[in-house]
Design a protein that fits this description.
3 domains, five-stranded antiparallel sheet, 21% strand, elongated
C-alpha cells in the first residue's frame, strides 16, 4: 500500500527538525538569560521592583578660629537621568528648558555608557525652581528624568579667600576609576584648597532610600516602611585657624592690587589671614561652571586662578638683611658694633653697587633700621656663600613649607653647588654675593616662606609649619579633634634674636627707620621694609612685621606687585592687618575683664 504523504517519514522528519530547532532556540535563550546575562537581568529586575535612591551627605561647614561660619551649605535642585528608562525623543525640549546646547544630553549619556544604565546620572546641578515646576507638571511624559534635593556650597558669609577654601567639582570618569569605593557617578569631590586637603573629613557618609516602584518606575511605597533606609551622615565641620575680621580686613586692603598678604600666629604657625589677589568668585563654582567662565579665568592675564601665596616667587629684598646679620653674628665674624661708612654704595671691581642713600657711618642696628645696602655688601663678603646658604636653609628659605594647601613652589637659595653648576667651577667670584646680601639676585622665596621666616624672627627661632586646619568637629560624636603639625626650630642664640628684634622695632619706632610712617601710639610694631626688583615694570613693595614687639601674637608678610617701595604700600597694609587682629583681641580681653569685675561686685 502506498505510504500516506501526510504521514510520510519526510513529513515526520520535517516536523521533528522544526520541534528540535524551536527547543534549541528556547534552550539557548534560557542559557543566555540565566548564565550569560544573569547580572543584567538581575540588576534590571531589582531596579524594576526596589529602587535605591542615593542620599548624598551635606559637606561639613568651614568655621574660623572663633566658630564663625566661613563657608556653609544651602539647598539645591539636581536633575538626574536614568539612561535605560530615558526617552531620547525628549532631549530637544529638555535641552531648551535647561538652556544648554543641542546634543548636550547625548554627549552626557555617551560619557557614562560604560557605567550602569539603570543608575541615575546627574544631568544638571543648581537647577532653578522654574525648571523644577515645569518638570513636576510634565513628569508623566518624561520617563527616566527625575530630580533630587541636595546641598551646595554657600559663600555668602562675607569673606572670599578663594585660594584658601578652594572648591568642589563633579568627579571625572578617570578620577572615578582611580578613586575608592566611596565615590560614584555625579559625586562632588574637593578639587582644590581646603576642600581638597580635608576631603575625607568634609565629605560625610552617603545614605540610601529603598523605594518600591512599578514597571513605569512610579513610586508605590517605601520598602519595609523605610526601616531599611540608611540615613546620610553629614561631613565633619572643619575649624580653620583664620580669623574672620583679620581676613576680611586683608581682603579689603588688597582688592585693588596684585599681590599677597599673609598673617600667622608666630608661636604655632596658625594662619590668621591669607589673601592672594586677584581672586576669583567662589560662588561661580557652587554649581556647574560654564566653559565660557573657565576660559575667561584661564585666559585672564592677571591670573586669578594662580595662588601667589604658595606659587609666586619673589626676591625678598631688604627683608633678607636680618638673616645676613644673624649668620655673621652667630659665626662670630663680627659683632653688633661693627660699623661701615656709607657713601652711597660700594665699588667692587669695575662695578659700583648702589645704596638707597648716603647713610654715613652706621652700625648693624642702624643699618637694619635705615636699610643700608652698603653695610650688607661688606658683611656678606666677610660671610661667604657657604655660611649664608647654611643659615638660609636653617630658616627654611628656598624650600617648601608643607603648608596644608597645594601646590607649592620651592624657591631658590644660591649655594656653592648652585654657582658651580650654573657658572662652572672656579668661574664665579664673590661679586655674585653682593646682590644676595641685600636679598636680590639668585635668591627667590615664596610669600608663605617669607611669613614663616618672620614668625621665626618673632618667636626666638621656633614655630610650627604654617597651616589652616585647626581641627574638626566629629559629626558622630560632636567632639573637637585637633590637627597636629611639625615644629620648626633654628639653632640661633637668644642673644642674637634679642638684638634682631630690637633692630626691627627701630625700623618703625626710630626717627630714621624706613617704616616709621606706620608707627602706632598703642601697639609696638617690629618690621622691615623691602623692595623686590622687577625687570618687567615697577618694583614690588614688601614689608614683614610682627607685633606687639615684646610679646608677638601676629607676624605678617605683605607683597604688593608693581607699585614701588615697601614703606609706601606694603607697610601701611601690614599695619592695618595687625591692628585688625590685636585690637579685636584687646576688645575681647576688655569685655572679659568687665564681666569679671561685674561678677566680683
Amino acid at each position: 500500500m502506498k505510504e500516506n504523504y501526510f504521514g510520510s517519514s519526510l513529513r515526520r522528519r520535517i516536523v521533528f527538525i522544526v520541534i528540535v530547532g524551536m527547543i534549541s532556540i528556547q534552550t539557548f535563550q534560557l542559557v543566555k538569560m540565566q548564565l550569560l546575562e544573569s547580572n543584567k537581568y538581575e540588576e534590571k529586575s531589582k531596579d524594576n521592583s526596589i529602587k535605591t535612591v542615593q542620599i548624598n551627605a551635606p559637606r561639613g561647614i568651614l568655621f574660623d578660629r572663633n566658630l564663625e561660619i566661613l563657608v556653609g551649605n544651602k539647598p539645591s535642585f539636581t536633575l538626574q537621568i536614568t539612561p535605560d528608562l530615558y526617552d531620547t525623543s525628549n532631549s530637544k525640549i529638555i535641552e531648551s528648558i535647561i538652556n544648554v546646547k543641542s546634543g548636550y544630553i547625548k554627549k552626557l549619556l555617551d560619557q557614562y555608557r560604560n557605567f550602569s544604565k539603570y543608575k541615575p546620572t546627574n544631568l544638571m546641578r543648581g537647577v532653578n525652581y522654574n525648571v523644577i515646576s515645569w518638570f513636576e507638571e510634565n513628569h508623566s511624559k518624561l520617563p527616566g528624568l527625575d530630580y533630587i534635593v541636595e546641598t551646595q556650597r554657600d559663600y555668602s558669609f562675607g569673606v572670599n579667600a578663594s585660594h584658601v577654601f578652594g572648591y568642589t567639582k563633579e568627579i571625572g570618569r578617570e578620577a572615578l576609576k582611580k578613586s575608592d569605593d566611596f565615590y560614584s557617578i555625579g559625586d562632588n569631590v574637593g578639587f582644590s584648597g581646603i576642600e581638597k586637603e580635608y576631603e575625607k573629613y568634609l565629605r560625610g557618609n552617603k545614605g540610601n532610600e529603598f523605594l518600591v516602584v512599578n514597571s513605569s518606575q512610579k513610586i508605590v511605597y517605601r520598602h519595609n516602611e523605610g526601616k531599611s533606609d540608611i540615613p546620610a551622615i553629614k561631613g565633619s565641620d572643619v575649624v580653620l585657624t583664620l580669623d574672620y575680621q583679620t581676613q576680611k580686613t586683608a581682603e579689603e586692603l588688597m582688592k585693588e592690587y596684585k599681590g599677597v598678604a599673609i598673617a600667622v600666629d608666630p608661636a604655632n604657625g596658625e594662619i590668621l589671614a591669607y589673601i592672594s589677589t586677584p581672586q576669583f568668585d567662589l560662588s561661580d563654582f557652587a554649581d556647574i561652571t560654564s566653559n565660557t567662565l573657565w576660559d575667561s579665568l584661564r585666559n585672564d592675564p592677571s591670573k586669578p586662578l594662580f595662588n601667589r601665596g604658595t606659587l609666586s616667587m619673589y626676591s625678598p629684598g631688604s627683608t633678607f638683611k636680618m638673616l645676613v646679620a644673624i649668620a655673621a653674628l652667630e659665626e662670630g665674624i663680627l659683632d653688633t658694633t661693627y660699623s661701615v661708612n656709607c657713601n652711597g654704595g660700594l665699588q667692587f671691581g669695575n662695578r659700583f653697587f648702589k645704596c638707597t642713600h648716603f647713610h654715613g657711618k652706621v652700625d648693624m642696628k642702624e643699618a637694619i633700621e635705615e636699610s643700608c645696602n652698603t653695610y650688607f655688601y661688606k658683611v656678606v663678603l666677610k660671610l661667604g656663600i657657604d655660611k649664608l646658604s647654611k643659615y638660609a636653609k636653617m630658616f627654611h628659605l628656598g624650600m617648601k613649607t608643607n603648608i596644608d594647601i597645594s601646590p607649592e613652589s620651592s624657591g631658590l637659595i644660591a649655594s656653592r653647588e648652585y654657582y658651580d653648576k650654573v657658572y662652572g667651577k672656579g668661574k664665579w667670584s664673590d661679586g655674585n654675593l653682593l646682590s644676595i646680601g641685600i636679598g636680590q639676585g639668585e635668591i627667590i622665596t615664596t610669600p608663605i616662606q617669607l611669613v614663616q621666616y618672620t614668625a621665626l624672627l618673632a618667636n626666638n627661632g621656633v614655630t610650627k609649619v604654617p597651616h589652616f586646619g585647626k581641627g574638626y568637629i566629629d559629626s558622630k560624636t560632636n567632639e573637637f579633634v585637633s590637627f597636629h603639625y611639625d615644629s620648626i626650630k633654628t639653632n640661633v642664640s637668644e642673644k642674637t634674636f634679642k638684638f634682631i628684634r630690637e633692630a626691627m622695632e627701630g625700623v618703625v619706632s626710630s626717627a630714621k627707620g624706613t617704616g616709621r610712617n606706620i608707627k602706632l601710639p598703642n601697639i609696638s610694631i617690629s618690621g622691615k621694609t623691602g623692595t623686590a626688583q622687577n625687570p618687567h615694570g615697577k618694583d614690588h613693595s614688601i614689608f614683614i612685621a610682627f607685633a606687639p614687639s615684646n610679646n608677638p601674637k601676629i607676624a605678617v608678610a605683605v607683597i604688593v606687585e608693581n607699585v614701588g617701595y615697601g614703606s609706601t604700600y606694603a607697610a601701611p597694609m601690614a599695619q592695618k592687618i595687625i591692628k585688625a587682629y590685636l585690637e579685636k583681641d584687646k576688645k575681647k580681653d576688655d569685655d572679659l575683664l568687665k564681666i569679671n569685675n561685674e561678677a566680683s561686685n
